Each structure stands twice: as C-alpha cells, then as structure tokens.
Amino acid sequence: MAAGRTKTTYTLHPYEVDAASDGHSYGTDAADALGVPREHVFKTLIADVDGRLTVGVVPVSTTLDLKALAAAVGGKRASMADPAMAERATGYVRGGISPLGQRKRLRTVIDASVTVLSTVYVSAGRRGLQMELKPQDLIKLTEAVTAPIGSS
C-alpha cells in the first residue's frame, strides 16, 4: 500500500547521490547527505527465511541480525536474498529498495528501535530520495511486526 493513497503524512527528502560510493553504504550516505542521525535512517534489506522472502528494516547504523529476523517470523534459517531476486520481488533497484509500494507484498519486520523515534527515514524507491514519516505509519502501511533485529 503506498503512503500517498492512504492519506498518510510524509515528507520527501531528495539528496545528491555520491557517484564514488562503494555501494555498501547507501544508507549512511543518505543520513550524512541529509544531516540526520544514522539511527533515524532505516535501510530495507531482503532476506530468504526458510525459502520465503522477508523484509528486514533496520537503522543504517546497524547490521541485520539474520538469526533474529528468522526468529521474529517463526523461521529457522535466514540468509541474504540474491540481489537480482530482491529487485525482481520488490520492483526497486539495490540501494533504492523501499519497504513501501513493493511489487509483491512481503512479510516485513522492522527493528524495535523504531518505536522510540518521532520520525523515521526510509528509501522512497530510488537512490537519492528518502521518505520521512511516523514510525507507527510505517508499521501500519507495511503490516510489519517489530523485533530487535538490528545489531551493532
């Protein structure tokens, strides 16, 4: 479900993408470019949990704990999904995968740290564009559960 169709309040924040980026730091690059704390900018990662694609949304300052993600959805094993498979399932390119408006609705887990924030930033569907919205709106729109899935 897209935020615009639900009358959810959000703000779009464009920023300049660093062409020299190594591709592993899109989220931290976004936080730095926007001048917001890294704990407020969340990255969207796609994992394979027991053969089923699952979305993990964690602060860019952390890494996704695959074991915790699997446990959060009642699974046993998790591994990062193949990037091409993630792009096909979501309709977004790597570095621009949004937890919202995905081609195929995937079960979603958002790191529990989101609940203490007043707003959160997530990709708006392409590199160079972040969406700021209330955590409770993100949880509702993605039909997510929250769990401690980010590790330092």
What can you tell me about this protein's structure?
The chain has 152 residues and is of the alpha+beta class. The protein has one domain (3-151): YbaK protein (Alpha-Beta Complex). Helix content is 21%, strand content 32%. The chain has four helices and ten strands; from the N terminus they run βαβββαβαβββαββ. It has helices spanning 26-34, 66-72, 83-90, 135-142; strands at residues 10-14, 42-49, 52-59, 63-64, 78-80, 107-111, 120-126, 129-133, 145-147, 150-151. A five-stranded mixed β-sheet has the order 5-2-3-6-9. The protein has a three-stranded antiparallel β-sheet with strand order 1-8-7. It is globular, with a radius of gyration of 14 Å. It starts with 9 loop residues before the first strand and ends with a strand. The model has no long low-confidence stretch (mean pLDDT 92). One of its GO terms (molecular function) is lyase activity. This is Cys-tRNA(Pro)/Cys-tRNA(Cys) deacylase. Pfam families: tRNA_edit. InterPro entries: Prolyl-tRNA_editing_YbaK/EbsC (IPR004369), YbaK/aa-tRNA-synt-asso_dom_sf (IPR036754), YbaK/aa-tRNA-synth-assoc-dom (IPR007214).
